[in-house]
Amino acid sequence: MKMEEMDIVKMIAISGDSKAKAFEALKCLKDKDIARAKELIKESRQLDLEAHNLQTNLISKALMGEEDTKVTLLMVHAQDHYMTSQLARDLIEAMIAIYE
Is domain 3-99 annotated with CATH 1.20.58.80? Predict the structure, then answer.
């Protein structure tokens, strides 16, 4: 597996962890544990930042001609995971604010 493919797989895994934290926060919110929900959202945001940094690095390498710019199914899958983790986190974070 090439280095960029390893980064893409890592991006998928991190995004999945982020989404799991966001939905765990939603469960805490349902149980009225707002403090824990906020902690989990913070963790989710940090994971999304990690995924974002991987994404930015991959895009930068492609723009500099260091990586093949061919879009692969794996990269599309990674983008899907990353975007849905961000959306889940944003929506659940807004729900926490409403409950407060």
Answer: yes
Q: Is there a catalytic annotation at residue 81?
A: no
CA distance 24 to 54: 24
- pTM exceeding 0.90: no
Would the annotation count 80 as a binding residue? yes
Digit-coded pLDDT (tens) for 18-33: 999 999 999 999 999 9
Q: How is the chain split into domains, by residue range? A: 3-99
Q: Which one of the listed residues 17, 77, 90, 93 is annotated catalytic?
A: 77
End-to-end CA, the chain = 46
